[in-house]
Structure formats: structure tokens, C-alpha cells
């Protein structure tokens, strides 16, 4: 994976799991061995691309940030919790008023679309 992973990857990996996982629980969550994960943290080996994708998804960080392409984690867009909560309530209320049962995928699609529109209007 040479050239894809930034030399600061172990430090970024520590930031990504802080307060969420230990090295052991991360290994379990993404399906890799503890010894392999420890090597990533120490910088002795780089993870595969598929492992980097799993780590980013699991820890809620961007691939670009984890791979060192973004300067800091703060460059991730912040979620406006109040707006997101209002959108979730609106989607649920709208479906209820229409006596419609939305699948989780449909709900996620509507919430995502309405959240983006709401954020643009701010």
C-alpha cells in the first residue's frame, strides 16, 4: 500500500479510534487479527485498501483524512444535530400522516436528501 498511506497513518488511526475502540475491539469489529492491527498502529505494516475502507467506515472518518490527504479531521463536515433531529421527526411525521410505512433504506434516503436541502438553506 506504499504511497497511499501517509506516514502519519498510525497517529491518525489512534485519533480515529479514540473513545470508540481499543486496538483489540477495532480488530474484532473489522474482522482482522489483533496482531495485524497492532502492526498498523506501530507503523510496521500498512493495512490493505479494503482494511482502510473498513476502518474509515467503522470509525466515522473520511478515507482522505485517514490516508493523510486532508490536513485535519476538522475538515470533515460537522453534523448539525438539531437540524438532523428535526428532519428525522419530519420524515416520520409525514409518513405517519400518509399512513405509509417506509423501509429503513427509504427512510435513510429521505432523511439524507432533506438534511442536505435544510443545510443549504441555512
Taking the sheet with the most strands, its summary is: none
**Which class best fits the helix and strand makeup?**
mainly alpha
**What integer value in Å does the Rg equal?**
18 Å
Strand content: under 5%
- Number of separate helices: 7
Specify the CATH architecture of the largest domain. Orthogonal Bundle
N-end to C-end Cα span? 41 Å
* Fraction of residues in H or I helices: 55-70%
The domain count comes to: 2
CATH class value of the largest domain: Mainly Alpha
Sum up the overall morphology in one term: elongated
The ordered string of helix (H) and strand (E) elements is: HHHHHHH
The overall pLDDT, averaged over residues, is 85
Low-confidence stretches: none
* CATH fold description of the largest domain: 434 Repressor (Amino-terminal Domain)
**Using DSSP, what is the number of strands?**
0
Q: Could you explain the architecture of this structure?
A:
By secondary structure, the protein is mainly alpha-helical. It has two domains: 9-74, lambda repressor-like DNA-binding domains (434 Repressor (Amino-terminal Domain)); 81-121, no CATH class. It contains seven helices and no strands. The protein has helices at residues 9-17, 23-30, 34-42, 49-59, 63-66, 81-97, 104-121. Helix 2 packs across helix 3. The chain is elongated.
Amino acid at each position: 500500500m506504499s504511497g497511499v498511506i501517509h506516514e502519519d497513518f498510525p497517529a491518525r488511526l489512534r485519533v480515529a479510534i479514540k473513545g470508540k475502540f481499543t486496538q483489540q475491539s477495532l480488530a474484532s469489529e473489522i474482522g482482522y487479527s489483533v496482531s495485524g492491527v497492532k502492526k498498523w498502529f506501530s507503523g510496521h505494516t500498512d493495512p490493505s485498501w479494503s482494511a482502510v475502507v473498513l476502518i474509515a467506515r467503522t470509525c466515522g472518518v473520511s478515507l482522505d483524512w485517514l490516508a493523510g490527504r486532508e490536513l485535519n479531521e476538522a475538515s470533515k463536515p460537522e453534523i448539525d444535530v438539531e437540524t438532523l433531529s428535526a428532519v428525522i421527526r419530519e420524515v416520520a411525521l409525514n409518513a405517519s400522516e400518509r399512513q405509509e410505512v417506509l423501509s429503513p433504506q427509504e427512510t435513510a434516503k429521505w432523511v439524507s436528501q432533506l438534511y442536505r436541502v435544510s443545510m443549504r438553506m441555512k
